């Protein structure tokens, strides 16, 4: 046993990670400037170092101990899973020429430019696939591991950043994705034999971690944090027992060296859920290893009643009681109760922490502006009550430090803070707008008929008669490129430097261009291009009652891309139509059918910070009712096709299979509530992306949309036969153009994909469209890609005739 040498564990509290994009998105801007070629790698490194140092200073100022590894070292230029791939040298063979670059920093096999190329692709070299990180709106880059992937310590960035912080006076706790999670999130490399499991490479990966730990210890790191969130999920590629066996093997090897000279103490963090279920108990497995600490998510997860874990004697348990994934101020009294209850665990030491990294919340509520009274709140000038109700990353650090003081010195030491938190929680529970009787009454009066449309056959006939579309109709998913001009106009308008009428005029001009372009290209169903939307969720949140939106509450979504998740704090209602004028204007410009464009209730919830005082399903139905009214108004304005996007349907799928059925029930119902009020001849579309859909195929069918467009290009249409086999028989638009990469897919490529789709399901139900919206693309890529899509469609149509 090595536990006798455990260092003093985080007595002042700790957090599992901190936002790294910068308080004003400094990292995003620096990275994008580097990509654009306007700054050098050295300049980017210097900006990043400044951001890291500012973070260290801030965390210490907020109360974390600078001497004992309480401050996490959780920086990343792009993604922490990509960082692990760089660390392990696990770069796919198509990028082999980037390895060992002359311009790579000492200690790295990849240059910064090379690292970004793996993330973003180049020419015909596709980037790593991107997918959702557990149940968050953060996306990571999927490692590709094969039998021959050569692992070595290919980057010592983690060590360099530890030294940099140490030299600045802060002893950090480096944070690295753990080996079991890394391999279980990986996919088999393209050239791997069928049935190959990346987890089979565990024994080759672990020695690299051993070497990293040795290097960190040599620099004096007291702790390292290895993130193993996969232990909270049972939706994984191998039986849970196999994952747990891998934990035993990996952490057995990682704890062989003595703490101190051989390695830092190891904290295994398990965010996003509980570890104990009926059939498996990952906490028992972890407790049986020789790691020195375990960080538990006590917000999403709970512990089995009065369970004791003898293996935890001598270990530190970091009790993740402060929510790292939502923005409500903590009820400190209730959190202290949870901490009291943890005595039964039998841990050697108890420390206070966050449930997850704080990378999922914005920096600071004090970066927002507040109106003097609730009535004066508008736009991003927030209702002053929110200042009291909310806690962003910096407030959460203070909550952690306060709870740690209460734990160490007794509740009396933090009475004032606890009382203030209790007052805030009480004020929120009873505040005007949190419960709106009219909203409640409408939801209570719903009947099954409100969730049901006419039979599909009847709808399909009525829609074909009304729309008269050709076979394999072509369309796009909604957004066209968000140009710098559009964003500048919106920024000026928000600052009051561009009048509302001039802004609207500029957006209308953009819509005119987008319509003309689509007609020129020859698309069948047109869109307005969404120029007026800053974001597909924030736009609606700004127009609905019950939501607040921030000015600076940025959260990284992937790479340099950020979002400002709205805050859903009260009952939701729609004071006025939200999209009708834009869609009606668009329809007036063309004889082609125009598709109205809305975001669905599940996605609006998934990409907002939602109230935690009622079941999500109830909140979803309130949003569903608001959207139902919008669909009715669009229909009344002559819009015959309406798309209701649900890209986040898969994202909120619970990590534990036992919870799937209940989730799929309320999520599907809220969509149906939104879409079932329209006439038989109105065609309802939906769109899903960024996911493996396997586990939600039944739900896709359950949505009962007339047409579903799905991301499919990278997976080469594999979802089409899956849907067919699941009995899905309505319209399907599998993406034939991967919009995540700047590559222009050729006519041949898109023809081949479309032919694949047509070959595996009734051609009469197939649509041709890109994988997702075009907002992150530039016109230089968009125009030829869509031209090729139309040409490909014509070629495949000819084979059908
Ligand atoms: N919420 C959400 N989640 C999602 C998606 C999504 O579309 N929305 N898509 C998936 C992938 N995630 C994505 C997340 C963000 C972006 C994205 O493009 N984000 C933009 C910001 C979008 C935005 O809020 N735009 C605002 C603000 C733009 C801005 O930065 N303005 C400048 C000023 C510009 C100027 O003066 O020139 C500034 O504020 O500094 C607007 O258009 O109004 C970015 O990071 O660049 C894309 C995909 C999954 N999750
Ligand atoms: C992330 S799904 C995006 C759908 C949206 N209608 C768009 O085209 O941008
Ligand atoms: Zn999409």
Describe the structure in your own words.
By secondary structure, the chain is α/β, with parallel strands linked by helices. It folds into 2 domains: 3-430, TIM Barrel, CATH 3.20.20; 455-800, Alpha-Beta Barrel (TIM Barrel), CATH 3.20.20. Helices cover 39% and strands 12% of the residues. It contains 26 helices and 23 strands. The strands form 7 sheets. The protein has a 7-stranded parallel beta sheet with strand order 1-5-7-8-9-10-11. A 5-stranded parallel beta sheet has the order 18-20-21-22-23. The chain has a 3-stranded mixed beta sheet with strand order 14-17-19. A hairpin with a 6-residue loop joins strand 2 and strand 3 (139-141). Helix 21 runs parallel beside helix 22. It is globular and about 75 Å long. The relative contact order is 0.09. The model is unreliable at 1-7 (pLDDT under 50). The structure holds ligand 39S, methionine and zinc ion. Methionine binds next to loops.
| Alpha-beta content class | alpha/beta
Number of extended strands: 23
Question: How would a textbook summarize the main sheet?
Answer: 7 strands, parallel
What would the CATH topology of the largest domain be?
A: TIM Barrel
Give the tally of structural domains.
2
Number of H/I helices: 26
CATH class of the largest domain: Alpha Beta
Strand content: 5-15%
CA-based gyration radius: 26 Å
Domain Cobalamin-independent methionine synthase MetE N-terminal: 14-343
Cofactor: Zn(2+)
Binding site for Zn(2+): 687, 689, 711, 772
GO molecular function: 5-methyltetrahydropteroyltriglutamate-homocysteine S-methyltransferase activity; zinc ion binding
